[in-house]
């Protein structure tokens, strides 16, 4: 190993220790920290974040990255280390181009804007948030201009959350999807509604926790390199090599919520857990593609978890842990987990209407960054698009444009990745059935770990070595298309709703 | 505020961030970390410990401490900041006197010795541990000689764990206690044994957790600045200002274990939680007196928790959470929590024989450091003293001299503090009854928070502003004596065992 590489790895190790401390502090803040300690913990997060930023923008670091980019060094590196050098040098150079004063002001304004969004949502009043949103939009444009002066801002933002993806592709596949989803939703809407009253019971949260454990183990989450805790909102986080955790939230009146959160976060976690150990301490293990990540969580949650056959092998075991399920007919449960209807809130939407929620946000983001629509006009645009896509109109801003936090902290370009994930899922499903046979049969036979194994071999173990487009090409041998997802929807819901 | 003080406080804040990260990593290792992450977490602990050590031994730090010790600065400081400067300068200067090579070797040898102790205990073979113990003893002597060349080694070690305490005082009060305990134990031994078979049931660990929550809240533990988790062995830790946590371990066949661990660790935690906020970020909030600390946990556990009247107001509530208790007569429960009999293992001993376990260790530590007894002769000495003090002889080294880890990592001088804690408790009890009236009545009336309030006002809020001798003098107005504890034992056990 070259001396430069050795120095670089020692430097990276220091950076990783700070990142580990920050991740653990955040985890603790979300899952355990008592209220009187929040200030001290945030102060520690601030300290370690500053140290980490200082280290990753230091001249010493840049000089190591540049030395390792020179062919005589670079060509000797493993592919994962090459990715690390490429990605980190790119980020280093981008940061070098941002004036420090601007960066500080941007970070501060985003924090202010988050607070304003909270207050606006609470008051259901967009005007409280508007001036901050306006400023975050213009500063985000400036931020991108500093980093990549020649790139279209929105194109850059989309690529930030989904490496290698572009708006031309998204335009094409979202249009395909929209064209298919609207008539499908009309058919579902016209069908008779299922009777789900058997689910109106109380379900012990402690028992729900045990069901979660059962589900996580069943789909292949490993407790040797993972753990579970409770938090306000479910999430997945990697604390350090060998430690990928999920959280959940348990509602006594809605066990389906925690069950599907368990499967969803479990999907994210299994992806991270399955990354090849050889990639630890390289950029390959830091999966920075949100669409690819979401494709794993959504595959487990929707394609597998909402398939009736997923439950056949474990429904009885689950009923032992949550005895209320003994009074819920299997068919009613299947109807409940596949209940499709237009609704206001994205995070509560079913898998079919979810896509329309995302298309709405994608179209508005393009309107913001490409058509320069005025911030004050956004609520009306939101409501108009809700009517067009879902046939409903929010009663107020809280259940309309203020529902998501993403725009308050400048995460423009993030939304499309949720739907990209589902679109990739349609394609994986085709490939899996070609390789392993009929999905229903696999699930019916309780062989779900065969699928986890397939995902591991084809996708998980590579981490972020390949971007999503490359993954799709490698795994499915074809271009990204929304048709497989639409076919899956058609086939499934024509059965569920008998049309 | 002087510029030097400002610099010092900024420096301290950095140190505190490292300490917080280390504490949180340890917490996580004990309570949640999956096995595959242990290496990465220990590596982070190592990194932050090294950084913290580097900062606290840096010339810059020493120079700030010295500047603030000069009268023109020192006289302007708050008493808590004066304590901080005194204590940290003392430690800084002690460390300055240790050759770096020796220190590294000492730390390494202690780690080796810990491993050897584990193996020896597993094999129940003292000879595996003996050479390491021998080396740790001689290196500990050397270590103390470097730091305080003029002090008696054992005197120094005792003071390290209980600031201001000395072996002359301990000799006196331990002798008093021994003189009283031996005849008391003989009387208890002669009395008929209680029938505790009603406790042979299975108790749901989840329900035990709920009982723990009840007990912690009942005695005054605050969940606003505290939290709870499960670990192999119960412990208390302060992660940062406003965050004092306790752990517990739940045995399905022994609910009394987790109940009394909850009360014991709760006592430690309440002490830390009640330290005046003005002392945060000073040495006053870092309570370095183990005897004083133990006096709080043992007061809650023994003086309060083993008093039958403690349970009267909550026995029914507890039986609702742990329904098995409905079949256990209150009187049987009281007998079970006050079951006194000689046993081999210190950590499982009752409050009466516990003292004899400590006296044994104290006498052996003096034999090691004052009489230079050969390491190879220690097991025989141990067994002989067990026979003298408790009338029983270990069947092997594992249940004899190898049972505690303290000597393996050089924590000589720690043991006496456990018993000092109980001796202080006897004195607090007298003072409380003088101030608040009869303890049984207070407990019977469910007014236990009056006692927590008294302890807070008299002891907790000062943290380590006063050493134990000063605390006893301030609170009880007299010299330390073992007589109050002996009177408490006599009075209580003559009732329990009817002699």
UniProtKB/TrEMBL annotation, chains A, B:
Is Metal-binding one of the keywords?
Answer: yes
Q: Which cofactor does it need?
A: Zn(2+)
Residues of the active site are 265 (proton donor/acceptor)
In short, the EC number is: 3.4.17.19
Which keywords appear in this protein's UniProt record, sorted alphabetically? Carboxypeptidase, Hydrolase, Metal-binding, Metalloprotease, Protease, Zinc
Domain of life, per lineage: Bacteria
A GO molecular-function annotation: metal ion binding
Q: Name the reaction it catalyses.
A: Release of a C-terminal amino acid with broad specificity, except for -Pro
Pfam families in the cross-refs: Peptidase_M32
GO BP field: proteolysis
Q: Does the keyword Protease apply?
A: yes
Residues the entry annotates as binding Zn(2+): 264, 268, 294
CC cofactor note: Binds 1 zinc ion per subunit.
> What does this protein's UniProt record list under function?
Broad specificity carboxypetidase that releases amino acids sequentially from the C-terminus, including neutral, aromatic, polar and basic residues.
Q: Which family does it belong to?
A: Belongs to the peptidase M32 family.
PANTHER family cross-referenced by the UniProt entry: CARBOXYPEPTIDASE 1 (PTHR34217:SF1), METAL-DEPENDENT CARBOXYPEPTIDASE (PTHR34217)
Name listed for the protein in its UniProt record: Metal-dependent carboxypeptidase
């Amino acid at each position: 190993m070259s001396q430069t590489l050795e120095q670089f790895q020692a430097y990276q190790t220091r950076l990783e220790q700070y990142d580990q401390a920050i991740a653990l502090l955040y985890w603790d803040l979300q899952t355990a920290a008592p209220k009187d300690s929040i200030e001290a913990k945030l102060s520690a997060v601030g300290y370690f974040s500053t140290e980490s930023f200082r280290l990753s923008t230091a001249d010493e670091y840049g000089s190591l990255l540049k030395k390792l980019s020179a062919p005589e060094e670079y060509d000797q590196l493993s592919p994962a280390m090459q990715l690390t050098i490429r990605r980190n040098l790119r980020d280093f150079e981008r940061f070098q181009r941002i004036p420090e004063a601007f960066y500080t002001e941007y970070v501060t304004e985003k924090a202010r804007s988050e607070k304003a969004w909270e207050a606006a949502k609470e008051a259901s009043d967009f005007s409280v948030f508007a001036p901050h949103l306006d400023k975050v939009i213009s500063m985000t444009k400036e931020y991108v201009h500093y980093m990549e002066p020649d790139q279209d801002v929105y194109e850059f933002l989309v690529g930030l959350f989904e490496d290698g993806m572009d708006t031309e592709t998204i335009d094409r596949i979202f249009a395909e999807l929209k064209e298919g989803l609207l008539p499908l939703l009309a058919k579902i809407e016209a069908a008779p509604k299922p009777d789900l009253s058997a689910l109106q019971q109380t379900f012990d949260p402690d028992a729900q926790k045990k069901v979660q454990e059962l589900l996580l183990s069943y789909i292949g989450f490993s407790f040797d390199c993972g753990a579970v805790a409770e938090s306000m909102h479910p999430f997945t986080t990697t604390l350090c090599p060998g430690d990928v955790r999920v959280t959940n939230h348990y509602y006594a009146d809605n066990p389906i919520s925690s069950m599907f959160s368990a499967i969803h976060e479990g999907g994210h976690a299994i992806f991270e857990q399955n990354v090849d150990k050889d990639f630890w301490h390289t950029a390959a293990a830091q999966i920075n593609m949100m669409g690819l990540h979401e494709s794993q969580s959504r595959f487990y949650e929707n394609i597998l978890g909402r398939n009736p056959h997923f439950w056949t092998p474990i429904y009885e075991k689950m009923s032992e842990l949550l005895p209320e399920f003994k009074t819920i007919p299997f068919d009613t449960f299947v109807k409940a987990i596949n209940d499709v209807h237009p609704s206001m809130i994205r995070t509560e939407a079913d898998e079919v209407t979810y896509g329309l929620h995302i298309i709405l946000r994608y179209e508005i983001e393009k309107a913001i960054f490409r058509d320069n629509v005025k911030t004050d006009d956004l609520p009306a645009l939101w409501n108009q698009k809700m009517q067009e896509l879902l046939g409903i109109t929010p009663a107020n801003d809280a259940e309309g444009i203020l529902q998501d936090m993403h725009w308050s902290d400048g995460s423009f370009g993030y939304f499309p990745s949720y739907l990209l994930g589902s679109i990739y899922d349609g394609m994986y499903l085709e490939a899996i059935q070609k390789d392993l046979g009929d999905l229903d049969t696999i699930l019916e036979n309780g062989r779900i770990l065969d699928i986890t194994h397939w995902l591991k071999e084809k996708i998980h173990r590579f981490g972020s070595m390949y971007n999503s487009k490359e993954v799709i090409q490698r795994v499915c041998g074809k271009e990204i298309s929304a048709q497989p997802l639409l076919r899956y929807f058609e086939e499934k819901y024509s059965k569920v709703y008998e049309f």
